Amino acid sequence: MPTKDRQTKFSKVMPKERLPSWIKPVIGRVSQIEKVQKLVKANRLHTICEEGRCPNRGECYASGTATFLLGGSICTRSCSFCQVDKGIPVLQKDSNEAIRVANAVKELELNYVVLTSVARDDLQDHGASLFTDAICAIRKLIPNIKIEILTPDFWGGSRDSIKAIELQKNRLKTVLSAKPICFNHNLETVERLQRIVRRGATYQHSLSLLKASREIAPDIPTKSGLMLGLGEDYNEIIETLKDLRKVGCQHLTIGQYLRPSLAHIPVQKYWHPKEFKEFAEIAIDIGFAKVSSGPLIRSSYHAENG
Q1: How many Å apart are CA 175 and CA 150, to the nearest integer?
Q2: Which residues fall within 8 angstroms of residue 272, CB to CB, at 6 or more apart?
Q3: 229 to 211, 225, 250: CA distances (angstroms)
Q4: What is the rounded distance in angstroms from the CA atom of residue 246 to the CA atom of residue 8?
Q5: Which residue segment(s) compose the domain that 50 sits in?
Q6: What are the C-alpha distances in Å from 59 to residues 25, 30, 56, 258, 277?
Q7: Is residue 116 classed exposed, middle or buried when 0-12, 13-18 and 19+ CB atoms within 10 A define those classes?
Q8: Alpha-carbon distance 138 to 144, whole Å?
Q9: Per-residue pLDDT for the chain (306 aa), expressed as one digit of tens each?
Q10: Domain CATH code at residue 106
Q11: Percentages helix, strand, coil for the chain, rounded to the nearest 5?
Q12: Alpha carbons 261 and 259: distance in angstroms, whole number
């Protein structure tokens, strides 16, 4: 959770009472929403759709899709934008989670699934095996399914920077060995705002992870995402896109940050859809193969469509 001083600072800047007219989440059918929610609850699972209060969850549930959140519902990081609970998880590792995820994926009859996780800095492998276990369990039930992963940075565990880089790469090798269809790691915001927005993560650590993925598994596309509206300016966004291309990132998502509660960092600007379109055009021009850019775009929104 934010410190008391930061909470006070955030509270002074109240979010706008009304969202801009162009931000209109699609409301899915109640029956389909209930189906997914009941299935997730019955299997004692978590989705980033619910934990992160995603504005698209109604639409995604209506189409029978969800992004599964591995490692429980408590994150060891305390990012100021995220709704997921923060703290130290009680369970070291849920040995049956992967099987329950696989059963839920099969029941939903998915052809493309996205797996993400809370940051698990408390685990020796920082949660790398959470992904490999789930991928293995899903493919046992559905061999030809396409699986995309959205991971934390796997950084930490050593004050020695050289050793930390080695540990990060070893954890990355573990998840890439499971052959996901796409490797996703979000940069989230521009370099200047990293410390405020992403506590415990850094711009360079994230770029190094994406670069290492291209080196270790060049046949697996890399993907990253940005949130706009946190106080970044136009030029910073363009520089961030260029930095992602320098490390070989191929797929990109750009969306509008929406404040989950008064305890979270406030929105500084609502970027217009025309601006999102312009950023998409620039991203394609500088070499991104696939770009999704719009106010309600999120990392795994329509991921099966690239």
Answers
A1: 11
A2: 20, 22
A3: 26, 14, 23
A4: 38
A5: 4-305
A6: 8, 10, 5, 17, 22
A7: buried
A8: 10
A9: 444 444 334 434 444 447 888 887 666 555 666 777 777 777 777 776 665 566 666 666 666 566 888 998 888 887 777 777 778 877 778 889 999 999 988 988 888 889 999 888 889 999 999 999 999 999 999 999 999 999 999 986 666 788 888 999 999 999 999 999 999 999 999 999 999 999 888 999 999 999 999 999 999 999 999 999 999 999 999 999 999 999 999 999 999 998 877 778 889 999 999 999 999 999 999 999 999 999 988 877 665 555
A10: 3.20.20.70
A11: 40, 15, 45
A12: 6
Place of tokens 């500088």: 286
| Helix, coil or strand: residue 112 | strand
Neighbour-count burial of 17, counting CB atoms closer than 10 A to its CB (0-12 exposed, 13-18 middle, 19+ buried)? exposed
Number of structural domains the chain divides into:
1
Partners of 161 in the beta sheet?
none
